[in-house]
Amino acid sequence: MSLEHFLHKASSSWMNEQGPESEIVLTTRVRLARNLKNYRFPSLFTSEEAREIMKTIQDIARNHFPAEMQAEFLKMDELKPLEKRVLVEKHLISPQLAEEAGDGAVILSSGEDISIMINEEDHLRIQCLSPGLQLHETLQKANQLDDLLENWVDYAFDETLGYLTSCPTNVGTGIRASAMMHLPGLVLTQQIKQIIPAIHQLGLVVRGIYGEGSEAIGNIFQISNQVTLGTSEDNIVSDLTSVIRQIITQERSAREALVQTSNIQLEDRVYRSLGVLQNSRIIETKEAARCLSDVRLGIDLGYIQNISKQILNELMILMQPGFLQLYAGRALSPYERDIRRATLIRERLRLEETK
After folding, report:
1. Distance between CA atoms of 164 and 67, rounded to whole angstroms?
2. Is residue 155 a known part of a binding site?
3. CB 161 within 8 A of CB 41
4. Annotation-wise, does 319 bind a ligand?
5. The CA-based dihedral angle spanning residues 54, 209, 353, 86, taken in that order and rounded to the nearest 10 degrees
6. Residue 339 known to bind ligand
7. Is 343 annotated as contributing to ligand binding?
8. Are the CB atoms for 152 and 53 separated by under 8 Å?
9. Is 207 annotated as a binding residue?
10. pLDDT tens digits for the chain (355 residues)?
11. Contact 337, 320 (CB under 8 A)
12. Which residue spans within the chain are E strands per DSSP?
């Protein structure tokens, strides 16, 4: 397995699976923040300490990880900026790790459902991903990997505070659980304006598709826990799952209301967006994301029969700047990217329709 395995395929193998509630919950993620005992946090450690940590984790992965995981170790200083950008667009590494000059690395499973970032904000960020709403199952997978690592390293842990982390907001369980949700019904009915503040009052956070500081383009929102101290991982995941299920119910109700009160207008919007994607010669990221969101809604409501939702998942990644430039084999200006984005979407949809 090589770096190209992760770069030239837009959709990860796990993304092609159908998970529970997948018409609304695209993916679920569990991330555990961990630090090694007797080492300073990444904000203060030396390059020598960073290299020791990388070698320790690399050796564990090589000698003790399950063979079926087919773990690949990638150092950030051996990757080109464009390669790192593509890994960020696929949610395999964070923007912060991509900026590391030479002290960071990542371990990826062949299916791309497991990602272990090394020397990001913490020594370890163990990330597991699943399709649909599977927070408890994803937590179990992350815990198994966490236990395996803890057999060979000592974590920085306090009996009162729990796992010690660089950022105080992660102290305790060190867990960030999240669900990526497609919520066009709540956006179109403007109910999202009331729901987001209510979610915040429950101790949860609403972010865009690429996490903190990112915009919720294409009506895709990432909802995650904020509290990590004073409660268990199971309770955090259970509480988040309960809220997610309530949002699913509200989104379905919003879609039903749109169909009952504005069916022709909604169908027209869906097919206009499909027409834009099928015929545009120039298209910007935000417009493409909005149109893809409309088409996906049209598929979910049964308006469109001959396009799969998996293709839309793939296109949401393929249309990103890093992927466009990777396929072009060179850096592109924003205008050139808009042309290539339109071409790629047209060709991919045409290929789907001829199957």
Report:
1. 30
2. no
3. no
4. no
5. -30
6. no
7. no
8. no
9. yes
10. 555 655 656 566 656 667 899 999 999 999 999 999 999 999 889 999 999 999 999 999 999 998 888 889 999 989 988 889 989 988 899 998 998 767 899 999 988 999 999 999 999 999 999 999 999 999 999 999 999 999 999 999 999 999 999 988 889 999 999 999 999 999 999 999 999 999 999 889 998 765 554 566 889 999 999 888 888 999 999 999 999 999 999 999 999 999 999 999 999 999 999 999 999 999 999 999 999 999 999 999 999 988 888 777 888 888 989 989 988 888 999 999 999 999 999 988 887 665 5
11. no
12. 25-34, 72-75, 105-108, 114-118, 124-131, 157-158, 162-163, 175-182, 204-207, 220-225
Q: Determine whether the annotation assigns residue 153 to a binding site.
A: no
200 is in an annotated binding site: no
335 is in an annotated binding site: no
Q: Check whether 211 is labelled as a binding-site residue.
A: yes
User: Is 177 assigned a ligand-binding role in the annotation?
Assistant: yes
| Residue 30 labeled ligand binder | yes
**pTM of the prediction?**
0.90
Contact 310/304 with Cβ under 8 angstroms? no
∠ CA(233), CA(115), CA(121), 5° rounding?
A: 70
261 in a known ligand binding site: no
- Cα–Cα distance between 116 and 258 in angstroms, integer? 42
Say whether 205 counts as a known binding-site residue: no
